[in-house]
Amino acid sequence: MPQMWQPKKPASIWQFLRQDFEEELSIPQDIEGNDGLADNFRPLQKGGRLIGRVIFTVSVLIFLALFTGACRHAPLALPEPEKATQTFDADEKIIMKAITRVLKDHGFNPFQVEADRGRLETDYVVQGDWRTKVVATIKKISRKENEVTLSVITEEKSFSRWQLRKIMGKDQYDKLFGEIEMQIYREWSKRE
Questions:
Q1: 153, 164 contact by CB (below 8 A)
Q2: Are 165 and 154 in contact (CB under 8 A)?
């Protein structure tokens, strides 16, 4: 019977390559008789050094991203202060005097008046952990009509900074506009 070909024990590819290196490069032997360079080299295998390095690099990058993100204080989106608008049939100067008088009666002092821009702003009035200021703008609509926009900005102190709080409602703004309207009539009566 013809003899069949029997496979030999498979040789690892590293042993095959190592023989070629030893012959061509004639690597010097260590004191113990091992090749220093050839024994330290490990080919890239599944689960070898390459995957370990990739995992380490990715984990370091994730750590750095989380660390820098945690240290940075992103500014919070500040809510827009409340505003209310009403139209008056009066001159800008009369309206400005009326608003100034009403705000003085409520305890807001001093004022930053920009008459050319039709803007009035008070300083903050601080009471405990709360502070409030008023910003009023006057915009001319027609020859006799002016639009007044009031914004009452109230902030509460929490920890070391002030945070905007919305506490004024439509009723409070209507009451404030009513006081301004009454003061406009008083200013007219003073002129006559």
A1: yes
A2: yes
Please state the domain extents for the chain: 13-71, 84-191
pLDDT digits (tens, 9 = 90+) for 35-72: 455 555 555 555 556 677 778 888 888 888 887 766 55
Q: Output helix, strand, coil percentages for the chain, rounded to the nearest 5.
A: 40, 25, 35
Contact 153, 134 (CB under 8 A): yes
Claim: this prediction has a pTM higher than 0.90: no
3-state secondary structure 26-43: CCCCCCCCCCHHHHHCCC
Residue 113's nearest CA partner among 131, 135, 91 is 135
Token pair of 49 as six digits: 């050094």
What would be the CATH architecture of the domain defined by 84-191? 2-Layer Sandwich (3.30)
- CA distance linking residue 2 with residue 11, whole number of Å: 26
Beta-carbon contacts of 168 under 8 Å, excluding residues fewer than 6 positions away, are 82, 152, 154
CB-facing half-sphere around the CA of 52: CA atoms within 13 A: 5
Q: Residues 6 or more apart from 11 whose CB is under 8 A from it?
A: none
